Batch of 4 targets.
Target 1
Amino acid sequence: MPKTASVTPRPALATDLMTSLGELLRQWLPRQRWFAGKDRPVSELGLLSMTELFPGCLHLLVRTGHGGVPGPGGAPAGDCYQLLLGVRKNLSPRLGRALIGRAERGPLAGLTIYDALHDPRSAQLLLERLRHPGTAGPLRFEGDPSVPVPAGLPPRLLETEQSNSSLVYGDEFILKVFRRIQPGVNPDLEVPVALAGQGCRRVPAPVAWFRTTHPQGATLGVLQPYLRDASDGWALALQALASGDDFTVQAHELGRAMAEVHLALAAAFPGSGHDDNGSTAAAMTERLEAAAHSVPALRPFVPGLQSAFGALATCDSGPPAQRVHGDLHLGQVLRAGREWFVIDFEGEPSRPLAERCTAQSPVRDIAGMLRSFDYAARQRRPWRPEWARRCREAFCGGYAALAGWDPRKKHGLLRAYETDRAVYEVLYEARHRPDWLPVPMAAIERLAVRGD
């Protein structure tokens, strides 16, 4: 087996490390699914912190810059990313997909650099850190002492498309390693902990996590139970479409489950009050204008879409604002047996963390799920709009049965939030999956022209 390189985090090494890694990371980062700046060149790259987790594995927080080019909605041009880098003289062929490159200069000259999350040895040592709370430089490893985590669980890295990286350990636990880091407690830790305190069984409770204290406090990863026999809602919906089966019973049950989660969220984070529809409409309009600037195909529909937001300012205020999921769709729910579970409370990764933690209308989550039914229906040709319509009705019916209010009777709110979600989807697909752009654009045309 190739030997790992012991890299002691001496001050001189930390200072010079980017001499070895800078050019390699500039080439590698934009190719990663979780990198947010694919449409902007990485012109600046800086090291924020470096810790040797164990020999041959470096934990880095790096700041990327884009030469003053603003991010989405005029956001700051830089982002912070978490990297776990393996360092070896030679790389085993089985780790070929993890290769970043060979350092030519600096303290790591002559060594091979790779993404350590692909390496079973590194993944197992990371779990050991989580099993034994403690510190490593600015890193803090913590957990729930009432839930033991066995040693020696074999790891596997999930290869599905996502904005973070996930490791499954022995089909018992799953570790989400956040890639794009923002200061503060990540809602994917904060919310499940709070829901567990409410006795809500729809969300797996965290058993361990790790964070950093430098350069600012931030959540880096969360370990939760893994639902080994579960299937995500997206896969189940596509299976139903492929076989010509109806999905309304499952959609109705999913609506009830989501209402249960919303009720638990309202109890866990009380005192939110009503949303300010005027401010919400202004924020939606600002996001629309920024998206239209980036995606020319959106521009002809801007006047019609703005009408949806204008109506929001004068319509019924709807249910009280509260903590919500923030990025709800069929890929964020799992069905195990006859039960639905909700996962991934991180919210839309492109939005600032503070915004994702604020109280919002629960209609935002409902609109996200309704859009997801449409996404699923459009994966089959010929398109089956009636399948999506029936699922939407069933989901709202299930939600209304438990929540005490019916989303279908909040037409102005629902149209505005669906429109805002579709605008987000257009921007996302244009940046990450251009072949999918016609799916949200079809909704944009419907929402702008017909006002549905």
Note: Confidence is low (pLDDT under 50) at residues 71-76.
Target 2
Amino acid sequence: MALYLLKRSCGLVIVLLMMSFVTFLLQSVIPSDPARAIAGPYAPLATIEAVRQELGLDDPFLVQYGRFLSSVVSGDLGKSVRTRQPVIDDIARYLPATLELAIASTIVAMAMALCLTLLQLGRSQSPLLSHLFVVLGSTPIILSAVLLPYFFWFGLGWLPGSGRLQHRDIAEGTGFYIIDGLVSRRLDITADALTHLLLPAIALALPFAMAIVRSLAASLREVMRQSYIRTARGKGLSEMSVLLRHGIRNAASAPLAMTGLQVRLLFGNLLVVESVFSWPGLGLYLTQSFATADLPAILAVSMTFGAIYIVVNVVIDIAQALADPRIEL
């Protein structure tokens, strides 16, 4: 285990270095000027040149990149061009919202995948169910993110479709409003946070769940034909007990691997969902940073997403090893 974690830690450093280098390289070829964004669209050329010299934008590419790496090692991710705040403070402010949404969407996706898989196994010959899975799995994220608030917010008025919270009197806490509401014994805040969280979580969970359904259903069909499943049935265990105690665990390896792949897509979908639902997280922050060529913010958020992705895949690898003893780390 220790050797595995050491290898993945080294991989994390290499991936972050590659991400930062590629982002820096793209910034050097994209026709955008951070100095113009800082000085303003009507600033004179002398002011823009002064800003460029202050930021070191006229230095060679490798000099700028080396200066950035030196700052990262010292814990300084630079200052945002758009917010004029240290980027690390912006990430600390917006990361809890993104993590809360990502965790909620993962839980919803897992629950949906399990329910739909059981339904599919029970009605494997239903063409209507198969067509439904194809439709849900092929629906673009932007379409589902727009249709959900259209029906449940504008149409029915059941759920809010914008923002994180209606209450503004919540005390400073972890930034996870559901947890903060429970800790402060404000169940109204927890309920409000849950209702705001539901629609964006479902929008993120739909493609996630459909991918897991296909993998889990295929694995379960194979597992349920094994001899130890017949032995468990012969002992008098109910079909549900056999499925949950023996089937799901032994079929979990492939769905967990698919989950690791879907996390990569989840980060891309976050940009769309947070923008549509005005969710104040890193996805919306990154989208707004693109519009202003905010390179420090883009770099920092990209590296944050890369670090989260590798940590999640480490957890998934460990979960696969625990679910199937034949798998070694």
Note: The mean pLDDT is 78.
Target 3
Amino acid sequence: MTETQDTQETGNGGPSRRALIGWGGAGLALGAAVAGGAVAAADAGGDADPAGDGMGAAVDFHGIHQAGIATAVQDRLHFAAFDVKTDDRDAFVRMLKEWTAAAHRMTGGKAVGDGAYGGLPEAPPDDTGEALGLKPSRLTLTIGFGPSLFEKFGLHGKRPEALVDLPQFAGDNLDKSRSGGDLCVQACADDPQVAVHAIRNLARIGFGTVAIRWSQLGFGKTSSTTPNAQTPRNLLGFKDGTRNIAGTETDRLKKYVWVGDGDGPAWMTGGSYLVARRIRMNIETWDRTSLQEQEDVFGRDKREGAPVGKAHEHDKPFLKAMKPDAHVRLAHPDSNHGITILRRGYSFTDGTDGLGRLDAGLFFLAYQRDPREGFIPLQRKLSAHDALNEYIQHVGSAVFAIPPGVRDSGDWWGRTLFTEEA
């Protein structure tokens, strides 16, 4: 949570029925209709549902940009990073097409392929079935490609310069088993079972081609892309992400989030870059810290989220009134030459660590136009000076190139990377 940028202000499957009757490739011919609720977003890859209150609705899978970035933030997360287990490029592309077809169906509230029952009794069903009867719950699925993917399939020359390996930051204690990955899928939904179902089915479809490297469940969104919604609180009890970029702020999205023409390889135009960090909070230490010190650490009061000396959360902060190492002061764009990122973080609790301490914190997700101009310089500063560092530690890390959206029923995840046509 160091990067709260408060501110911006800031299985084992065997051959499936798909293999037996070949539904996967044909899945790309699916129509654009979605079941189980009204489409909540349209033109900009799921940027809408601005009120964020269509709890059972569907978010349009197709668009210029992928849904799940500027889309109104859902309540639950299942994030998975995958390793590629094949050197067969055609097999990998075939999987991406099958994933796209499955993702389109699941985000529309439909079962994968021919469903969870009624098929060949000798073969596993196409869908695992735990989401039967559930609404779409605004499910979004967002794919990304990690730096290591570009060492495979002859993709060396297509790696964007902006997709840099993240440097080691002061205080990092990264677990390699919770870091990196050839590709990722971010599943967000208002129902945790819907999000878990999505990742489970993609992993099943990808069996033998990819395998999950690590994953993270999240709850209690810690940021919002809907300015009319109440700012969420993190597990330290403070409002997080005040003045985060809103899904309706097309100018700010264009400036800070979406990759533009000429920013890099043409296949990334309309995409973005994602930094994911698992940040553990020293909950027990924080809970024994005085209220005054807690507020000094953040530079905001705990009740309203107002900056020091102000009455309301959204009052313009007077940064010099805060302590020099206050989180808000250090993270604010005015202290960082205007650096702005879009945050979609989630709280997590993963039991205890064996010593009775809660393994809990923030799964930080930040989208930006270029990590070299966004997360990296910001985190260098925060890791060196932020008073919050006494109470947190970064224990997992990954960076991914997020390709543009799936335009229509003939398109598929990663097409612009794996074909010559953009």
Note: Residues 2 and 414 are 32 Å apart (CA to CA).
Target 4
Amino acid sequence: MRGPASRRRALTLLSAALVAALGATAVPAAGAGPRAPGTERVSVTADGGQADGPSENAALSGDGRHVAFVSRAPAFGCGGFFACLRLKDLRTGEVTGVEQDGYWAGAPLLSHDGGRVAYAVGRRFPQPYLYDAATGTAERLWPADPPGFNELGAPGSLSPDGTHVTYTLGNRHGNASAHLLYVRDTATGTDELISPPEEGQKHASSVSGDGGLVAYQIRRDDDQADDQADVLLKDRGTGARTQVDTGRGTAALVRISEDGRRVLFNADDGLYVHTVRTGATERVAPEQALSASADGRHVVVAGDAGPLLVDLRTGKRTPAGPPDARVGPTAVTAHGKALAFSSAAADLVPGDTNGAVDVFVRELSPSGV
């Protein structure tokens, strides 16, 4: 028979076991919550070493796993006269050199899974290319027999699944640097002319997820009036073309949503959304957008203290970076969970002592939300 001391020890052990069991299933205490958002420096080597040169022009894949950026850091095998394009897997830390030959023009574009990268590069004049990470090869985006004289070009947009890419061609003479706009269908390898030279310069373009719709911005130069920029939407199936910014003055395309239902564009007094089905256009933010998610729900705008992520459905505004952050056109994930930017700030992550512009990714919402 157990004595009082033995019974007390048994009760103590039983109480400890019950507390442990209850603690494993209990609701978190007040103040506990999901993991707080954080900032990661992306422009470091696979073993975590600092870059010894500037890195910028960041693009973030829709799933948030891959970042493409341009660097001049010898640590990445770059430097000298030519910069280089690097693709980083944020899950494994692996850094891949994208096939290239020349200097860089503008920021790269990424598919949703980071498997394809569109970019412009050339030793004399930049030309558009599409890189396939699965094969490690790049192909030049150029139709068989484009009209007129063409020596340069650049990609405009890449569909989230990587099967359609818009790009411009032109030459260095006068205002003809982007006088042709094409769509490449990667499944068939065909190129379709979307806008001919007489329509004007094409300063931006965006293709829907299925490749059926193309939104683009044109600029008409008129000696008798100020330059005018319009945003148009073309249905590749029917050939129908609609101006979506009517009555808004000079406009600048942001993007068409992946589902093709909305076209986002900037005007002098802020950001507008055009609903394709109804033809309605409404202002959704007083600022102009720098970048937008594929679903068209989240945009990044410039704030006094740095970029802000805006949820267009709820109006919620989330600080997204430091005051000097530079945000590219495809820098936010599919559902606004993270943003890529470049910055010279040395206090965003511990141990930043390289004194160079770096590329960062900031998580903007808790994992799983």
Note: The longest strand covers residues 213-220.
